[in-house]
Write a structure and sequence with these properties.
2 copies of one chain form a homodimer. Chain A has 170 residues and is mainly alpha-helical. Chain A is built from 7 helices and 2 strands, in the order αααααββαα. Chain A binds a DNA duplex (23 and 23 nucleotides) through helix 5.
Chain lengths: 170, 170
DNA sequence: TATTGTTATACTCTATAACTATA
DNA sequence: TATAGTTATAGAGTATAACAATA
């Protein structure tokens, strides 16, 4: 198993400061070793970069990815309840509650009692919510267009892989 | 732009409870609409799933992905300083500090003053650190093997895409 | 008993800004 | 002035567990 621990021999004990003094663009200068071949590591960095980029774009108009996803699901599944929504976006119901409370306070969604079941709410977007979603969608698509440029025609394949990871690794 | 907002007509106003009553495996039952074609959304879910899976595996032995990545970089770049390390793993130096303090307290890394520059530390793994990294690496590889199964021979391509996202979208 | 939603609580990760000490 | 590292602080996001109302 020691092959796992191999690192470039020339790096074993570099003269002091050789690596440490690399300043700008350091991430290219540093060796990542095996880290470089781990899907999980790159998944983390890519997601991180994508998230930050989206946040920057959407920044002024407030609203974060989690809320955007929630609104999309409500839009596409009017009347859905909180628990099912949570499952759809892979978040616990206790995470969903404050999210929806905020959206409701902002007048973007409505929560109405369900006829048959007194425990659930039916979730709907308000007119204002649809307008907001519309704007957010444009920002999201603009952001994703940037990703599209990178992914190109491998996009369907790429998304299929990400879906399988989500479903099979979780 | 209204094509953006299209949703399945049959879902426009489902009879009450139709969607909300879907319980197990709800994420397949709910329509994600355009969300489904956004790279960013799937990136988020896939990363999330991968992270949770890794945490579960490594759980008992403590230590999270961020720390693992830091140890890998130190291992592969002995003598690196904290700022450069931060850049390599895409984290601010103020995020790196407590991380390294903990690793030092646990005897996994050493921080020694640098000859030429009194401001920097040189980071090295201790013998215990190398042993721990070795174990963690096995867990990480085991985890990544699961991802490998999914990605298959598209792995180089897949990683290349993730890297480009990280570098170009950030 | 099981489920929906709420709350209390706590934890992890992260960054910004202000600081010290060096350069 | 500029850089390395630390600290104080704050904020996002999340989950677990206990709970009330309802099924």
């Amino acid at each position: 198993m020691d092959a796992l621990m191999d690192k470039p021999a020339s790096r074993r004990r570099p003269r002091a400061g050789a690596v440490a003094s690399a300043e700008a663009g350091a991430q290219e200068d540093l060796s990542l070793g095996l880290l470089n071949s781990l899907v999980g590591f790159h998944l983390r960095l890519a997601q991180d970069a994508s998230f930050r980029s989206y946040s920057r774009r959407v920044g002024l108009r407030d609203l974060k990815p989690g809320r955007f996803a929630a609104m999309m699901v409500i839009y596409n599944n009017p009347g859905v309840n909180q628990t099912a929504l949570g499952r759809a976006i892979a978040r616990d119901k206790s995470t969903v509650t404050p999210l929806l409370q905020q959206l409701e306070r902002q007048g973007l969604i409505s929560r109405s009692a369900q006829a048959g079941d007194g425990r659930s709410f039916q979730l709907h977007l308000t007119a204002a919510g649809e307008r907001t979603l519309h704007e957010l969608l444009e920002v999201a698509l603009e952001h994703d267009r940037k990703l599209d440029e990178i992914v190109g025609d491998r996009k369907p394949d790429f998304i299929a892989l990400l879906k399988r990871i989500w479903r099979e690794v979780g």
